[in-house]
Task: structure prediction
Amino acid sequence: MHRVLTASLIAALGVSLAGSPAEAAALGGSPAQAAKPLDVVKKAVAARIDKRLDALRKDAAALGGAKHLQAAHKQALQQLIDGQSAGLTALKSKVEGETTAAGLKADARSMVVDYRVFMLTGPKVRLSVAIDAELAAADRLHDRPGADDAKLDAVQKSLAGKVDALLAIQPGADGAAVRAQVTTIRTTAKGARSDLKAISGKK
Result:
């Protein structure tokens, strides 16, 4: 939903906000399409930035409640959240000062491709928390009498380095590539969770 709304917004910026015939032509629209006031879309972009800032606050809260998140991972994620929060706050100020549709379109694009809050940052937090919790669970299961150490070792091996790989993924213009990288790690985490449930006898 966020991706669809933002794509629609950027498309609207390309054709509906040109303030002059020349600007309309430069952005791919026509003077007849230059109908929406710049301030209206400024507010729309600012509102979408606010949604991302709110999501980052929720991500930060999730870190605080993650009992098994490794310290190094927590630090890296907190730095990411802090950096993106600062960057988006600055971008919002820039949006409020824009005087051209082209500038606002660039800001709207930056909001998406330079941060990927919903596609990447949120999943980084949730999957890191989940993977570290799964690793901790595997350690606990190893200590149980009659533990299937071979299966537990296989689970731990499948998860080894996955959080670091996840944290290394960078936002960018190729959303499909970003999503594919996240999906690969998510699939591994889901598989490990299922395996741990089977090993522990939980349903």
Observations:
- Confidence is low (pLDDT under 50) at residues 15-35.
- Residues 38-64 form the longest helix (27 residues).
- The radius of gyration is 22 Å.
